[in-house]
Amino acid sequence: MPERMVGKQAPRFEMDAVMANKEFGKVSLEENMKNDKWTVLFFYPMDFTFVCPTEITAMSDRYDEFEDLDAEVIGVSTDTIHTHLAWINTDRKDNGLGDLKYPLAADTNHVVSRDYGVLIEEEGVALRGLYIINPEGELMYSVVNHNNIGRDVDETLRVLQALQTGGLCPANWKPGQKTL
């Protein structure tokens, strides 16, 4: 039986990434924690696929909202930084990503995908896992879905805002509503 992760310290990571300025760099949970930032870490299966660009560009299009909530967004697949850059340099109308406002990290050795429990070992790709980690490194939210289904940016933002209230949020809670 898999061990629970929510409510515990998130697995630490440092990965090579293509940064928003299209340069190669590194992303790490420790850096986000040092900067007192929330981390929205999401895994996707592969570059140059069909559902993935819809999610990745939707997150980028709403990045300012995450930034306003002191959150850093990091997208991760098991592809290389070179493949990420080629996909970013491909126009959206051609199933590419175009410019992104956050980094895409390369988990080529599969360590981070395995640590977060989303690696499909026999395929060497990740499931669609999304994790919200607070500035102290505690994993506060985890959701994993089948690779055929894209995630909802509105829901990710809603959950992040709910977590940041520090209160008890009832079902269907929306930002601005009272907590319990």
TrEMBL record:
One of its GO terms (cellular component) is cytosol. InterPro entries: AhpC/TSA, Peroxiredoxin, Peroxiredoxin_AhpC-typ, Peroxiredoxin_C, Thioredoxin-like_sf, Thioredoxin_domain. The keyword Kinase does not apply. GO terms for molecular function: thioredoxin peroxidase activity. GO terms for biological process: cell redox homeostasis; cellular response to stress; hydrogen peroxide catabolic process; response to oxidative stress. The keyword Nucleus does not apply. Residues 4-165 form the Thioredoxin domain. The active site is at 52 (cysteine sulfenic acid (-soh) intermediate). Pfam families: 1-cysPrx_C, AhpC-TSA. Keywords: Antioxidant, Disulfide bond, Oxidoreductase, Peroxidase, Redox-active center. PANTHER family: ALKYL HYDROPEROXIDE REDUCTASE C, THIOREDOXIN PEROXIDASE. Belongs to the peroxiredoxin family. AhpC/Prx1 subfamily. This is Alkyl hydroperoxide reductase subunit AhpC.
